[in-house]
Amino acid sequence: MPEQGSAAVSKRQINLSGASGGFAAEVSRRAKTSVGLCWHCLVCAAACPFLAPMGYPPVGVLRLVQLGQEKAVLESASIWGCVGCHSCSDACPNSIDVAAIMDVLREMAMERGVKNPAGDILSFHQEVVSSIAKYGRTHKLSIMMKYKLGNRDFFSDAAMGTKMLLKGKLDLFPSRVSDTAALKRLFEAENGKEDSCKGKP
Amino acid sequence: MQGQTIKTLSFFPGCSLASAHTEHGSSLRALSRYLNIELAELVDWNCCGSSSAHSINRRLADRLAGRNLSLAPPGRPLLVACPNCYLRLKEAQKKLAGDSSARENYERDWCRPFDYELKIVHLFEILEDLLKRNLGSDKKHKLQGLKFAPYYGCMQNRPPALYAERKFTGILEGVLSNLGANPISWSGSRTCCGTFLSVTRPDAVTKIVNNMMDEARQVNADCIVTACAMCHLNLEIRATVKNPMPVLYISELISLAFGQKHHGPWFARHIVDPRPMLNSHGLL
Ligand code: SF4
Ligand code: SF4
């Protein structure tokens, strides 16, 4: 009979206390998962379709976190090449939420303002978020144009863009959320105050 | 089906269905009419954040999903057309249900009590209904001879918090076989389409997409079938093989089998024109 329950889980965990443990503990806490559970079986590396744009495979990222290699992991292209497809988290025999760890690592990289080897990917995400801030929905055409302008890349994909326009796959005008107060509230740093509900059902 | 009561579902189309991919949206609406389902679009819904919001701002991603949940009228299931939006909404619902301070914020922000009972319905559940009620078994001849490669992409992947959620394995195969088509087994079925890498690292996506197209050819499929607008777009725009395979929405094929005549612009909007293939099977 295999052991059951949390005692068995904690026995399986690599003990990450000590000098290098702080970083791993923070990542685990924020991602609500356990970095120490990774036993390097490489299942996630086999499942991940995007090893090429990432560099370190997901298991490599976890290893670096376990070793407290904060700089190496936060400055890696891996965390930006990851698309969050959950192929890794779905396959992991230890139920580690690898994709959530990637989310947290990107967040930490941005908080700490470290060097980003994939700045164009960050700027793409920022264009998407700013389209949502403006319209409440994504407007592909303006996202693409701003992304291309930002990266001084005017010509690659121009033919594809034209084709998509002609096929009606890129709307010229954005569709929008009409409740602009709600839209503003979505992006407020703090949650709303009680009085935002006054006079509402 | 006539005389059956009509069931109303709240409907979350998501950005890709609402704007750029109306062939999926309108064939889905046609499909729901066959099932006597009325779709009531969620009033003033917002984007779920696509793959970008959670990538750089998890709090925002949760709030975007939360506002959408708050818009759903009580007592009515919420059908989500996009598999990715489905996961985001489901995850947000689970977080809110288990976290009283998040719930407090939610109720203060959206002036609505959190609805524990709200049932979020995956597009595949609708297809399952079609299968259970054996609708279309009288239409077996319609898709006869059509060989398709079922494509799920990342759709069946679940983060650990949602491991218990159903995966609907084999649903595309089941529904289309019931209409006479033949599913082909191939290795590309669960390969992620790359989402935003299609813009930022197009070469990486082209490599994956070309492999898929080549393999689908090798196993003699006539087309690839998907339920996701993002997958559809990436497969179409990033294929550089000589003879790319048409990619069809499951809703398009079902509608065709059910004899839908008003498919007007659906197929003309595809970048890889599926009409020669559909014509050769007598489907247009
Ligand atoms: S699949 Fe899980 S346990 Fe195996 S290497 Fe990847 S993260 Fe570690
Ligand atoms: S979520 Fe990221 S790391 Fe995991 S399989 Fe997908 S791309 Fe690879």
Mind explaining what this structure looks like?
The complex is a heterodimer of chains A (201) and B (284). Chain A is mainly alpha-helical and 201 residues long. Chain A folds into two domains: 16-112, Fumarate Reductase Iron-sulfur Protein, Chain B, domain 2 (Orthogonal Bundle), CATH 1.10.1060; 119-190, no CATH class. Helix content of chain A is 55%, strand content 0%. Chain A has 13 helices and no strands. Chain A has helices at 5-12, 21-31, 43-47, 51-54, 58-66, 70-74, 78-81, 87-91, 98-112, 119-135, 140-150, 158-166, 180-186. Chain A is globular. The N and C termini of chain A lie far apart (56 Å). Chain B folds into two domains: 7-122, Glutathione S-transferase Yfyf (Class Pi), Chain A, domain 2 (Up-down Bundle); 140-280, Rossmann fold. Chain B has a four-stranded parallel β-sheet. A four-stranded parallel β-sheet of chain B has the order 6-5-7-8, sandwiched between helices. In chain B, helix 11 links the parallel strand 7 (223-226) and strand 8. The interface between A and B is large, with 67 and 59 residues. The structure holds iron/sulfur cluster (2 copies). The site of one iron/sulfur cluster has 15 residues of chain A, from helix 3 and helix 5.
Question: What are the salient characteristics of this protein?
Answer:
heterodimer; A: 201 residues; mainly alpha; Fumarate Reductase Iron-sulfur Protein, Chain B, domain 2; 55% helix; B: 284 residues; alpha/beta; Glutathione S-transferase Yfyf (Class Pi), Chain A, domain 2; Rossmann fold; 2 domains; 4-stranded parallel beta sheet; 8 strands
